[in-house]
Please model this.
Amino acid sequence: MTNRFLIGALTAMALASCSDPQPNDQQNTDAASTEKVVNVYSHRHYDVDKQLFADFEAATGIKVQVIDADDDQLLARLAAEGANTQADIILTSDAGRLGLCKQGGFLQPITTKNLEGNVPQHLRDPEGNWYGLSVRARVFAYDKNKVKPEQLATYDAVTGPSFKGKLLVRSSENTYNQSLVAAMIARNGRDAALAWCKGVVANMAREPKGGDTDQMLAIGEGLGEVAIVNSYYAGKLMVSEDSAKQKAKAIIAVAYPVIGKDMGTHVNVSGAGVARHTKHKDNAIALLEFLTSDAAQSVFAKGNMEFPVKPGIAVAPELEAFGNLVQDQLDLSKLGENNAEAVKVMAEAGWK
Model:
């Protein structure tokens, strides 16, 4: 689904999603609220999530029912279902998409002492519509035999002439790239973001294709020297025993670029919020709080190579080996607010 179609669908259907329940709907809601179940609409597709949901079921007796789809499909489904949705929690792997969920009226504000204590302010919606659950940094994976880490201190570095024809990146349809550009707009302005996108396009080693891991495998094949990827993909590569990944694994290192002077590395979150029309609100809040607990945060870190949102939780050794991550403190709600402009900027730059 294209972003333009998605935004049109959200605009056309948002009113239906915000309509108040009718009397019969309210009776059904009252009955459903006593059920020991929580329905999760999820874009995440990791085995670690299955473990976390099983742990929650064992701890609470509340059954977790999951509907999987990609993030844009979930948004379209929520718009179509309106007040009749079965969703209790909406879970995605991008703060920009969480912002679109908020804009579409699919979430409701929730504030609890545990959630606000566990999730730092810049990693959650200021009004409590969603909370980050795990962090991933948008980093450079590079061929350590050909590139020195000091060449990759900033995101702007890869737009210079020394990386002409050497840069690997996935398409502009990718939400992580859209959110990176959205963050640049927030931090440095539209003109600077456009200049960066044009520099990326000018230095591409090939037309964008594949996922983050595919970009790193291309480095292993000598098709490029630097790739823009999420940190957890790089971490997973380092522990992979897959024979097809060994060439890339042997030569790749990771650099944490900064997004601007006195700023850190751009980060994004997997996060979740309570659905506006949830029938199991207490259960949904209980699951959210569980996912930000010490035990769950350790599972995110060790099981999926993601950085915990909760301070004080140990990071996976493979990520520690990449160096010290200094997170940019940008309010991540800006990613959703700037998503549409980011898509326009990338198109203007010719990023396919």
About this structure: Residues 1-23 have pLDDT under 50 and may be disordered. DSSP finds 16 helices and nine strands in the chain. The first helix runs from residue 3 to 18.
